[in-house]
Amino acid sequence: MLHRRCGLLAVSLLFLGAVAAAPAADSKYLPDNAEVILTVNFKQIMDSELVKAQKDAAGKVKAMVEDKMPPEAQKWLKKAGIDLFTDLGSVTVALPAKKDPKDAVFAIIEGSFQPEKIFATAAEAVKEYGEVLKITRQGQQQIIEVQPPQGEALFVTLAGKDILFATTNKTMLTAALARAAGEKQSKLKKEVRSLLEATNGKQSISAVATGRAIAKLLENAQIPPQQAQMVGPVLKSIEGLSAAITITKDVQFQIGVGTKDAETAANLAKGATFGLTLVKGMLDQKAMEDAKLVPLVDIVKTLRVNARNNSVMFQGQATLDNIDKLIKNFHPQ
Predict the structure, then answer these.
(1) Model-level pTM?
(2) In angstroms, how far is the first alpha carbon of the chain from the final one?
């Protein structure tokens, strides 16, 4: 039984690729109901000066993954011609504004794939896992379907040699293929498109979410009723939030708040700038009393706020040295 479970995990890994993403995916691939979008740029992270400077980092990560991954999983990945460390560029995950969005998860995996080899491997896997795995067709398009005894079904296909779709909703998969082929136009919400303007392919990790979506997701969180009543209306009153981390030789970060109009954004930026000035003064004072806070003061000093059209952007950066000092100061080994 354990052997078969490991094998099933291998098949799932094979066709999910791995959920960790990269450059903000072309918006035409995103489902129309997407209101939470997370992208992790694997390639950008591995190519960054910071990671390359850690000479043994890549080797250690690879060894750890290989040690944790069942041999059966490694076998299927090899058969499909997929190397997680060289072939995967990015993964973008999109969710709707639902309290429980598990039945509408959509992933876009970018990389370098061999469609014929992947589907041939899938056909071979069907012989061993036929009770949970099958291959169907949508016109000329092959679709790999994973139907576990428990949990959500998974539908996977390729839209060329560099794009793989994986979703828990087959209708969403069909729509994505139509958009990729130019047979259907994207109807992504206006506020989502606006939030995505703060993301780009040079960022390591980026995320956007509408205020409505965040409010919905927080309904599952264990937040005291009084606080929930305060936070909910605030989130619904803004267009949404965006965030990004960019790893170069340092770590750059930004948070964006989408507002209803440029005037609201300008007023929010003024208030935030004043508040940031107060925080910097307070931290300077505290750092004189506690040297452990000095690295945090250095990071906060890089923070800046500015209004861009209908958005307010908070940006800053942290050196590896300051991050290392903070970790040692507050979480000593």
Answers:
(1) 0.84
(2) 40
